[in-house]
Amino acid sequence: MKYFTRLRVRRVYKWRGKPISFNRKLKTCEYASLDISVEGLPRVTVIKTGQHILIEGDDEDNPYVAKVIRLYGDENGKQKKVVVQWFVRVSEVPLSKLKLLGREPHPQEIFYYQGRSCEDEVDAESILRPVKVQRLDGAAPFPDSDDQDTLYVKLSWDSKTFKSVDSAQVDSDLSPDSSSSPPPCSRSSLPPSTPCSHPAGTPASRHTRRALPTPDLAIMRRAAPGEVRYSKATMSAGKPSTAEAESMHSATKRSASKCLSAKRRNAFARTPGIRKKLELSSPEKKSVIAEDHLNQLLDEGPESALMLAQRLSSSPPQAVLLKHSLTPLRKNLKSSVLLNKMCLSEINSSPSSDHSTRATTPSKKREPQSLKEPALEMLAEVDNETSPMLPITATPRSSKRKSAQLVSSRIRKQLNLLDDQQDLNSDGEDEDEFVPSKRELQSSSEDDEDDDGGEKEAALDSDDEVLVKKGRHAAAGCRTPRSKQRTRTSTRTPRRTPRRTPNRKITPGTPRTPHRATPSIPCRLRPAQQPANVLEEARLRLHVSSVPESLPCREQEFQDIYSFVESKIVDGTGGCMYISGVPGTGKTATVHEVMRCLQHATDMDEISPFHFIEINGMKMTDPHQAYVQILQKLTGQKATADHAAALLEKRFSNPAPRKESTVLLVDELDLLWTRKQNVMYNLFDWPTRRHAHLVVLTIANTMDLPERIMINRVASRLGLTRLSFQPYSFKQLQQIITSRLNKVKAFEEDALQLVSRKVAALSGDARRCLDICRRATEICEHSAADTSATGLVGMSHVMDALNEMFSSAYITAIKCVSVQEQLFLRAIIAEFRRLGLEEATFQQVFVQHQALCRVEGLQPVSVSEGLAVCQRLGACRLLLLEPSRLGVLQRVRLNVSQDDVLYALKSD
Amino acid sequence: MSKRKAKDAPLPVGKCISEVQDILRKRLCHQQLPDTPEGVEAQHKHLLELLKRTAVHGESNSVLIVGPRGSGKTMLLKCVLRDLLEEKEVERNLLQVHLNGLLQTDDRIALQEMTRQLHLENVVGDKVFGSFAENLSFLLEALKKGDRSSSRPVLFVLDEFDLFAHHKNQTLLYNLFDVSQSAQAPVAVVGVTCRLDVLELLEKRVKSRFSHRQIHLLSNPTFSQYLERVQTQLSLQDDFPDKTFAQDWNASVKTLCEDKSVEDALQRHYNSSKNFRSNHMLLMLCLSRVSVAKPAIKPADLLEASKMCLIDAQANMLHGLSILELCLIIAMKHLNDVYEGEPFNLQMVHNEFKKFLQRKSNSMYNFEQPVIMKAFEHLQQLEMIRPVDSSSVKTQREYQLMRLMLDNTQVMEALQKYPQCPTDVKQWAMSAYG
Q1: Distance (Å) from the C-alpha of residue B50 to the closest C-alpha of chain A?
Q2: Most buried pick, A139, A447, A856, A901, via CB within 10 A?
Q3: Which of B69, B143, B405 lies at the smallest CB-CB distance from A887?
Q4: Which residues of A are less than 8 Å from B48 in CB distance?
């Protein structure tokens, strides 16, 4: 609230004329036109239905474009809503889809939006100004005009494809517009130098910033309590109308079905629709905020020249910050810098303003949420301190007399404070469910806007991060607005906007967390060579790492997992599944395949988007690291194991609505075993929570793992949804190889069959099968030099490879050891036979050895030599020995069967 | 002095000798790699091809080099790497990480070492690595980011591979093999071990991810090959500065190897162990006997050296014992014979000794109890005897059960060589029952 009196561009939105109709059910009045006036300026912009307008969005330079369909407000005139038809800018189309266009898009080209995923209802206060939109024929070239205010429509976009616009439909839309298209109201206030400051930007960008009429403070206060609360929160958030407008705007992009309840609750879920998704992670939106700050700070109208100067002067740091300032902390700094700048240029009280901005930030960060009220008061005081300098910029008239401003601003502030605190008190209860820890975890310091925002919604934040993540990971365009609906009281919404940015900023690679700088193996100078011949090609395809086009022989399992996960996602419920099977039977591969298919389905809009994360028990050092990894993959946050567990617990039990399901794959489950089994317990307990929307797929090798290692309450939660992967049969293995080879003719049929039969008999491990085939191609390549009969991998090569991999080396090793070592082995067997035991001391064996030496006519060896012989055999594990410090007393056992030893020694 | 002149002019003998010793020591101490590894050409080719494919094509591989100690595993690997790095493209691309199971005793140390050798710590600046968990995920992330064709291949050499299998959960091995079996940065994992049963040490899922390529180094040279190798090891190359000396030296080596006694001695070594490491030990001993006065290896040198190699260490130690201690050892031997290896204590030994003294009327060996106790303790320190179990510290020293760590043959052998051994003691030792 400290910025409450801060000056900003104020736009006043008024209905023009009487309501043309009244909807009893929704209690809304429909109007024909809306007036937007900028305080202090005589001009009034009229928005009529059918007109094209710019709507405030994330990207300052590219506000959203829409056509007004309907204007309406609620009974008491608190809310002004606009139903619009959206247009999509080039920048809002996912880059990957932009290719579908087949040509270079015109910078001012927009597309008629036909997708269903954006709500068509926006808050009137997010309207910036009218804009001119012209429809062009598909073949017609873009007019070569300098008029940056005109946008062109050629095609329509339904989030998947471009289509030519139904001319009748769009023309009807366009005709009134082209005729009316009044000059943007703000234009007049624009100094001529502006265009050069943003040469590339669309004209909208210029207007958004300064000439934007924002709701007057007075109007806000005039409004009914709920609205007042809302506006005040916004104002106090230091980011008044822009933030609010934006949030409202996005909030209204909700499915129409929800609009009633949403309106009642006045919820402003800031959920950019699918079309805005692109920008979620784009750095541009920072500019919005930066500009917002500017807007708040800057005076309007007559002082625009000054403002411009300031903006210009501040733009370089801003540009820098856009790149690096990924933490809100920076933003605060930035705003303070801006403040500073302004104050320096205008007044002498800059130190105080600077101080205030900084002072509030830390205090906010530290304050635990339970201490909301004290913090508030403190902040209020801070506000008071700051206020003196703020009015100075308030209006041109008052800027002459400081003392007067001071007094008036204080009065105003007190008034607001009273209101505000009431609101907060009433609000307080709702917020109790949020834990303070969440805030710290945000790691980003809170913006100066959240002084009363102990109630920050952690759940929302994490949601945001999920979105961000999604935006990064998932293929573009699969986001549906449904998933982003949030029920939230309006008081909170304004703060969401500022919050959002910091969240998004917690992306890997921020300078703040150097250890999360993503490392990588350096690139090679030249790309690796491509396979040159059939055998190399085959080898590449047979490598286990190559991802096959399809997973043959696991259709049934695939179907089971797919339907399980899909049903859970569709129902929005959670569940566990246990998948078992010996290594190399395609468990993980199948789950990944399922996920790929589901992602594809999401892209096709068949199911709602979900979030897939994967952890592996082997890839963590401690079972409790599972929490850390899940949290990091889910939200990008880093935390200690305990903290992460607490956060996840909150996240999954939090009733904050979140449509997006999470699919968690836990590989190598058995390694998550702890004595208390709390990791497993939690993993299986979360899906049972009502709000978790969590599907857990677990993978381990043993079929009876739940029964063997889990205590009852864990096994019970895991449930009975189990799937067992049988080892591959030889036919399946053969099919796998054939499908991998995919018509690359490198193997003889018999050879393949031999490999698959052999592997199926031994383990049914597909990896083994592929490795043998790969080895066989190598052997074939080597032998091809001399024979080169067919160039195909034949039986002999496969046999060689099989022998290499499966034959035990013991017999060869025994054949290769020295004479004394062989004698020693014989002595051991002789001693074993004499004792009737499978164990003897070295001393006993040595006696036999000496005797054998004499029989063989060799010079008897000394004890030291005998020990050396024994140790050598022990080192390669032909023998099992006790520690060698026992000397002659150490006991000796054979690690090979006696028959093997005798066989090896006989054939000599 | 110009170089050419020095080459032509015969060097002084002393200089030649030091030169020879220098060259041969380098060879025998494994500081110099042979031009071509002998007897393992097939394995060399296999490994070279394999690593080349990783380096050039970016194909991930894993392989184990298995062979008994001294069979040339590391030599083979080094030769392969030397040959591999001769190719320019490979040299610029290949990253190497060398780990040793004896040094990197747990995964945490191993991970830190890997990060260091990959120069990945630069990425994180001066920030010291945090936890083990962070380190692991850091490294995995690094490897995950790569792909087959664009990342530089990484060669992981795990010396004493079997020791890595004893790390907790085999996390390191699982992850290395997993990377080698998935579409990540190309890696080649080369394990070097002497254990033939190494695969049994791997957990089943780790084992499944291993490609099961094993290169066995089980060379089986015949004696003639062995002999030939001794000769080549000792022979000088053509690039020796003094040609005439080199010729003389090579001729002397040839005659040495043809000598019958030398051949017998070498045959004995060959019978005992075929690996070259023990062979090199023998040759080193010979080499150190070469001096200016004797500028060649004589058969006698080799026989002497052979004797030194084969000497029984513990029997040798018996020579340094006092008569009393020797008598105690003999008493223990008799006890061993009587009770068939059952443990004994000081009191029993003393009694046995006293029986011997009673038969001999002279009191030459009449020692006090504390003196005998002292001698007994000395034997224990020399580890000629050892307590049955160390836990019985509570029992009085006289009654602590002991075992003799010597074989009967060792005792008898030592007795033969013991300087001025009294005849009655000798007789006592040889008599069947004390």
Answers
A1: 9
A2: A447
A3: B405
A4: none
Comparing alpha-carbon positions, the chain B residue that sits nearest to A583 is B205
Question: Does position A559 have pLDDT exceeding 90, yes or no?
Answer: yes
B262 and B358 together in one domain = no
Q: Are residues B84 and B148 in the same domain?
A: yes
Inter-chain contact A527–B138, Cβ cutoff 8 Å? no
Residue B146's alpha-carbon distances to A222, A523, A616, B173, B364, in angstroms, are 61, 8, 19, 19, 83
Could you give phi then psi for residue B387, rounded to 5 degrees? -60, 150
Chain A positions touching B97 (Cβ under 8 A) are none
Dihedral of alpha carbons A251, A252, A256, A259, sign: positive
Q: What is the pLDDT of residue A117?
A: 60
The pLDDT score that the predictor gives to residue A361 is 39
Q: In this complex, do B68 and A875 lie within 8 Å of one another by their Cβ atoms?
A: yes
Q: Which residue of A has its CA nearest to B404?
A: A889
- Helix, strand, or coil here: B6? helix
B333 with B283, same domain: the answer is no
Predicted confidence at residue A660, as pLDDT, reads 81
Domain count of the fold of chain B = 3
Least confident of A788-797, B260-269, B374-383: A788-797
pLDDT tens digits for range B383-406: 888 888 766 567 777 888 888 888
Question: Is residue A410 very low, low, confident or very high in pLDDT (cuts 50, 70, 90)?
Answer: low
- B93 and B136 share one domain: yes
**How big is the CA angle at B178 (ends B174 and B179), to the nearest 5 degrees?**
125
Distance between CA atoms of residues A47 and A859, nearest Å: 114
Residue A133 identity? V
**Under an 8 A CB cutoff, do A876 and B118 touch?**
no
Residues B183 and B248 in one domain: no
Report which DSSP code applies to A106.
P
State whether A527 and B149 contact (CB < 8 Å).
yes
Asked if A876 lies within 8 A of B69 by C-beta distance, the reply is: yes
The answer as to whether B26 is a domain residue is no
The verdict on B278 and B422 lying in the same domain is no
Which chain B residue has the Cα nearest residue A801? B213
Least CB–CB distance from A618: residue in B150, B151, B175:
B175
- Choice between A844 and A101, residue whose per-residue pLDDT is larger: A844
pLDDT(A535) > 90 = no
pLDDT of residue A394 exceeding 60, the answer is no
What digits encode the pLDDT tens for the residues A687-728?
Answer: 988 888 899 999 999 888 888 888 988 989 888 889 999 999
For chain B positions 228-267, those within 8 Å of chain A (CB to CB) are: none
Q: How many CA atoms lie within 13 A of A875 on its CB side?
A: 17
A428: helix, coil or strand? Answer: helix
Cβ neighbours of B341 in A, within 8 Å: 843
Which ipTM score applies to this complex?
A: 0.91
**B386 close to A (CB below 8 A):** yes
Q: In what order do the strands lie in the sheet with A879-881?
A: A840-841, A891-894, A879-881
Q: Which residues of B touch A671 (CB under 8 A)?
A: 169
Collect all residues of chain B within an 8 Å Cβ-Cβ radius of residue A529. 56-57
Give domain status of residue B36, yes or no: no
Does any domain span residue B116? yes
**pLDDT given for residue A374 in this prediction:** 41
How many Å apart are CA B288 and CA A552, to the nearest integer? 68
Q: Are A500 and A250 in contact (CB under 8 A)?
A: no
Choosing from B167, B185, B216, the residue where a domain stops is B216
Q: Decide if B271 touches A, using CB distance below 8 A.
A: yes
- In this prediction, residues A296-302 reach a mean pLDDT of 45
Residue B331 belongs to domain spanning: 315-430
The CATH number of the domain where B141 resides is what?
A: 3.40.50.300
Give the chain B residue nearest A859 (alpha carbons). B268
Q: Considering B216, B246, B266, which residue would you say is the last residue of a domain?
A: B216
Chains A and B form CB pairs within 8 A to the count of: 235
